[in-house]
Amino acid sequence: MKITFPHLGNTYIAAKLFFDSIGADYVIPPVSSREALKIGSMYSPEEMCLPFKIMMGNYIQAIEKGADTVLIVGSCGPCRFGEYCELQFKILKKLGYKVNFIVLDYKEDIGKEELLRRIGSILEDSKVNNRLKIKGALRALKSVKLMDDIEEKAHWLAGYEVKKGECKRLLNHCKKEVLLTNDPKKALSILKTYRSELKKVKIDKNKDPLKVSIMGEIYTIIEPFSNLYIEDKLMDYGVCTKRMLTPSWWIKDAFLKSFKLNSIKLRIASKKYLPIYIGGHARECIGEAVLSHKKGFNGAIQIFPSGCMPEIVSKAILPSIAKDENFPIMSLVMDEMSGESGYITRIEAFLDLLERRKEKCII
Q: Based on the domain organization, do 301 and 181 belong to the same domain?
């Protein structure tokens, strides 16, 4: 068995650490790109959303490198993501690829025994003992949190750094270096080192950069290619950014959901505008918009793929929040036809708006 998985931000680093720890055979797909999107779009139904098409490209590129098993997590409520695996499996089978899918769905949806069976199927080729398997899983979880901390710190300090581009350089070097090692212990050490290095970045506390919240559909805000690397662009502009939805947030939210203790602050914040759960991360998006204003952000950017029903509902609600709170919010809808030039123009115009508003407040 040779496992692969779709790209979702930096989760490939955690997957690599885990599979290296248990001695499993795996293939990391090439970084999501126009080529992956082109391949995925060629074989996907036209009306399917952007994440589906990019994932299809990831799978086919990895299968061409020898992968025969796809590992994917389940969905969260009434969202097309929940049907991805079924349709993707049928498409790949029709194309002549012999591949199996392992779907790690919620325990409440498939039952504890079935979830354990699926987890067991991932581990069946591993020759290490159970203690080392557990240790590998814990390392992977730790790497998720470390990588999220590094990204969060880099994206925020980019607005205050004295040496322009230093945070982005450290972030990119961290990703490259950790990918080059097959030693899980060394990988964790690298992540800890870069987290410490970011704390040493010289900052100018007299700066007052724009602060922008990134929110929306979880895939398009976490997977950089799907949003045309918006966080990198905002770092180049000297803007501080933050997003609440991260891989480590998703893991924690999935665990607490069983006890109905997940996303309490976000649910409370969204109650006025969206009191019910409608699927996807619509409530989280609304809650983030409200909380971002309360935390003093200058504005927010919602990003979601074309056709995403939960986020279309959120998009319809956000203007009310913007009006009530006098808080600028821009929505960016992404699909395979999204062009970078027009995209950058909209971002720059939004930042100009936020800058003028901030200057008026100072005056």
A: no
